[in-house]
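pasting for the record
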Amino acid sequence: MYRTVAAFLFPITLVALIGTGIWGYRESQEKNSVLIKAENHYQRAFHDLNNHVDKLQDEMGKALALNSRRQLSDCMTNVWRLAYAAQEDLSQLPLTLMPFDKAETFLGKIGSFAHQVGVRDLNKEPLSDKEWNTLSTLYNHAHDIRNDLAGVQNKVLNNQLRWMDVELAMASEDKKMDNAIIDGFQLVNKKVEQYPEVDWGPTISNMEVRKREKYQRLSGKNISAEEAKRKVAYALGRPSAKGMNATVNGKGGDFQTISVTFKKKDGEVYTDLTKTGGHMIFMMYDRPVKKAKLSLDQAEQMARRFLNRLGYKNMVATSYAETGNIVALNFVHQENGIYIYPELVAIRVALDNGEIVGLQADEYVFNKISPITVKPKLTQMEAQKRVSAKLKVQKINKAYIYSPITGDPVLCYEFLGMIGKEQYRIFINAMTGEEEKVERVKKADADHI
């Protein structure tokens, strides 16, 4: 009898085992495919960063040697664009948990300095001796940064280092992290922090003052660590704060945050809230994402539900990008039909089940500039005449942005459109008609978003 049962069950068990093996193999293949795509994305962004910093330093060197004011203007405009391109490259890398803020801010200041020189009439207002000295100092600092980043790049190439290992190392609680990429970036950040104070000029100095003022505009009462845990539990739809750990950060700094972390079955969740007001400004759920099952529309709906739970109202999606079965959506606050770009929230949604796996909301929390009372002097038609005829306009909005030149908030008309196969946003000042900002959009659906 036992032989009969065994003979009957054996083929069934064998088929089940083979089926399980095939399923496991497919799951493994899909996971590996996602990891490879993410790694390729990080590697491309890192090598683009090195390329842009390399060209940035070359352009600054040329600017020091030029005597032609027209060529100097072109050169400084190139420096500005390269500095912001380098910042964009940095935003694509998994550096959120790594202290690299000093170097990133320094690149932003180089861009602002170059822009304020490049856009003015150098025949009427030539480069001053003080500005030339500032440019010379920045050139030397950029040379150091380029060499240090090149050193990291060499290690990455020669030792076949992976950015996915960086992400895992930064997300772990192991304080003794041994990673050449992390060490290299921390070295760059530490060097920048030790640079003597640069005379950026009054415009950029005023921007720094306004940045500190933002932190002072935080609304609400101070919350405790336990309150922070409860807020995280509510936002993420958990029944309780059980198993959560909370740590207060930034004592003595411009503002304090409370970090709340907890483990789930397939990964760990990291969040940061402001101590004042309890506003969530960061969240990352580090888990493997399986094959995509949701559409962009469905992912946007999940993101909107999350924004509502956080209390971030009247948000409109402006762009998106898909990487490794995850879609990243940018939302800005909308008021009376005006897109307030400084009040930005970025959300990452897993396309396998719609779970929120990332949030960056510090710009929304710290850049509160609404309500907007200013009215445009130019009509939409008058503003559109200032836009390049080569732009095939897809959509027009009123928008509020920070001027790259002065750092002041300005009301603009935003023109979203195509030049060839590339999509751009062009912001025209609604008061003066000047072109305030041009940016290339990685991916945006003019009808949907």
